[in-house]
Amino acid sequence: MPTSLPWHQIDTVLLDMDGTLIDLHFDSHLWQTLVPARYAERHNLAPDEAKRRIDAHYEAVAGTLNWYCVDYWSQTLSLDIRGMKQEILGKIQWRPNVIPFLAALKAAGKRRVLFTNAHPASLAVKIEQLGLDEHLDEIVSSHELGWSKESQESWQALAERVPFDPARTLFVDDSERILVASADYGIAHQLGIHQPDSAMPPLQFRRFPALKDYAELLPLIA
User: Fold this and answer.
1) Three state DSSP letters for 119-167
2) Which superfamily does 7-24+94-217 belong to?
3) Average pLDDT by consecutive 10-residue portion of the chain (222 residues)?
4) Torsion angle of alpha carbons 52, 57, 62, 65, nearest 10°?
5) What Pfam families does this protein's entry cite (predicted)?
6) In 3D, which of 191, 216, 134, 205 has the Cα closest to residue 20?
7) What are the domain boundaries of the chain?
8) What is the pTM of this model?
């Protein structure tokens, strides 16, 4: 159970997308199962060898914009990543009680800003599938800013794009590394996601509280 949040001291809520608002299972299945399988087929490799090569590619650019870039991976792996996403659209699902939580934030007058590392092409797919834009006040992809959320430059660029007071802001993300980056920038409140992928074991957060279900935050009581 996360610690109670001082909602009277929070004006802006920055929200990650994949693993935070949306079940990470879609992306996990795409990148950990479907991409290695198609790569093995295309290059006539054994599954284990294909997975080893894919993981090496992933590790080489982890934490950079390329890691999140559909076009980079399509070119690097010679695969139609956009087409593969279309094959598994049914796996794009909200996390439990996200919509009631976002509605409660709106009712309480909190600004709801999606801040994601997802490539605009990936973002567009999820907006189309779930109507994300109907439940948020602003949507920003780090690709528009030129740096991933892991870097301080990204946070500085976000503040120029969407002015907010770090001392009165909550940031919710399933990556502790990115939560740390937000704290280093001066964001006052952080919240992790205990189980971003519903098909995988829970995560453990060392520095920040984490929630299992947005119902834990409802109603919004300071």
Assistant:
1) CHHHHHHHHHHHCHHHHCCEEEEHHHHCCCCCCHHHHHHHHHHCCCCHH
2) HAD superfamily/HAD-like (3.40.50.1000)
3) 80 98 96 95 94 93 90 94 94 97 97 96 94 97 96 97 97 97 98 96 95 94 76
4) -150
5) Hydrolase (PF00702)
6) 191
7) 7-24+94-217, 26-90
8) 0.94
